[in-house]
Amino acid sequence: MIIEDLQIATEIIPLKTPFKTALRTVNEIENIVVKVILTDGIVGIGAAAPTYVITGDSRESIEAALLGPIRQNLIGKNILQFNEVLQIVQQCCVNNTSAKAAADIALHNAYCNVLGISVSNYLGGTKQLKTCMTIGVDTIEKMQQDAKTAVTQGYTILKVKVGDNPALDIERIDAILAAIPAHIVLRLDANQGWTPKEAISIIQQFEQKQYPIEFIEQPVKAADWEGLKYVRNHVITPIMADESMFSVQDAIKLIEGNYIDLVNIKLMKCGGIAEAMKIASLAEAKGIRCMIGSMMESSISVAAAAQVAAAHPNIHYFDLDAPLWLSTEPTHLKYVGQLVEIC
Fold first, then answer.
1. 266, 269, 278, 286: which is the annotated catalytic residue?
2. If we measure between CA atoms, which residue out of 83, 29, 79, 87 comes closest to residue 59?
3. If we measure between CA atoms, which residue out of 8, 7, 12 comes closest to residue 37?
4. What CA–CA distance (Å, rounded) separates 38 from 36?
5. Which of 87, 121, 134, 237 has the greatest number of C-beta atoms within 10 Å?
6. CATH number, domain 122-342
7. What is the CATH number of domain 3-117?
8. Per-residue pLDDT tens for 216-233?
9. Can you tell me the distance from the alpha carbon of 339 to that of 183, in angstroms, rounded to the nearest whole number?
10. Helices 273-285 and 97-115, axial angle in degrees (round to 10)
C-alpha cells in the first residue's frame, strides 16, 4: 500500500451569482483537485480552492506546495502508517494550509478505500447535518429578497454577511427580519469589517431589539485578538472566531485566553480533516462549541468538512452551502432543502 504518485488538475468553476462579503466578491473559483495514487491502483481524491484574503494561498502556491514538498515527502510512504503520513503533510512545509488540506483529504479518501469503508465511518459518526444559507452583502433590497427566497426554499437559519458598510448593517438586518417569519434564526458574519467599538454599538442595538441572532462571527480584524476579547466582554451575544483561528495552537490561545465564545473550523485554514478533528476535541475539552464551515469551494472539499461535522460531537453548527453557489451540480453531497447528505 505504497504511495506511488500525487497528481493535480485545476478547473475553473463559475458561480451562479456573485458571492459578496466585506472582504471580496467571488465570480468563479479555481478548484485544484488532488489524486493520491497507491501501487495497487487505489486512488484518493481531495481538493482545495485559493482564498487570497484569508489564507493567503493562491492557485500557484497551492500547486507548488502539492507538487513540491508534499509530493516529494509522500511518495514511497506506506499509507497503512496513516498517522505518520498525515504528520508528514503537516510538517513538510510551513503555512500552505489549503495545499495541506487537499492532500489530507485525498489521503483520508485513499486510506478508507483501502479499508473498504467511508471516511464518515472511519471518523466515527453520521449525525444529521442542517446547513444555513448565506445571504451575501448587497443592497438592502437585494439582501431582503435573498432572505425571503432562502426561507421559501426551506432554510430556517440564515448566515447574513455584513461589515462592508457598518452604517447600513442595522438597516439591513431590520429589513431582513421584517420580511421573514419570526422563527427564522440569523447568524451574522462581519468578515473583519467592524472596529471593536462599532461592533459593540451595533451588537448592543440588536440585543436591545431582541433580534433572533444566534452569534456574531469575526466582528473585527483577524489579528486584533484584544479587540475580539473587548467585543466579547461588552456584549451578550456569543462571539465566534473565524479568520482569527487557523491552527490548533491558535485555538488553544483563543480559548484559554477567553477571547471568544465559539470557533469556526475550516479545512482550508487548519490543514485538513485530522487537524479539524483535533481542534474540535480541544474545544470540547474546554467547553467551547464549534461550527464547521468552508471557503467558496467545490463539493469535494466541502464533503470532507461535512464528514468531520457528521462525526465530531462538538460540532454543533454547519455552514455547508458553498457548492450550491457553483454552476456545477454537487457530486459528493446531496442537498434536500437545508439537509445535507454525504454521498
1. 266
2. 29
3. 7
4. 7
5. 134
6. 3.20.20.120
7. 3.30.390.10
8. 999 999 999 999 999 999
9. 18
10. 100
Strand order in the sheet with 339-342: 129-130, 339-342, 333-336
Say how far apart CA 137 and CA 295 lie, in whole Å. 16
Contact 306, 342 (CB under 8 A): yes
- Whether 3-117 and 122-342 share one fold: the answer is no
pLDDT tens profile 294-309: 999 999 999 999 999 9
Question: What gap in Å lies between CA 245 and CA 254, rounded to an integer?
Answer: 8
The closest alpha carbon to 129, from 274, 312, 271, 272, belongs to 312
Active site residue 35: no
Decide: residue 68, CB within 10 A, 0-12 exposed, 13-18 middle, 19+ buried: middle
Dist CA 86 CA 105 (whole Å): 10
Q: Where are the domains of the chain?
A: 3-117, 122-342
Question: Which cell goes with 130?
Answer: 442542517
CA pair distance 214, 151, nearest whole angstrom: 17
Q: Is 159 a catalytic residue?
A: no
Q: Alpha-carbon distance 140 to 216, whole Å?
A: 19
- The gap between the terminal CA atoms of the chain, to the nearest Å, is 25
DSSP 6-49: EEEEEEEEEEEEEEE-SS-EEEEEEEEEEEEEETTS-EEEEEE-
Amino acid code (one letter) for 281: S
Q: How confident is the model at residue 126 (pLDDT cuts 50, 70, 90)?
A: confident
- Whether the CB-CB separation of 213 and 158 falls below 8 Å is answered with no
pLDDT, tens digit, 9 for 90 and up, residues 53-103:
999 999 999 999 999 999 999 999 999 999 999 999 999 999 999 999 999
pLDDT of residue 125: 86
Report the DSSP beta bridge partners of residue 3.
38
pTM for the full model? 0.97
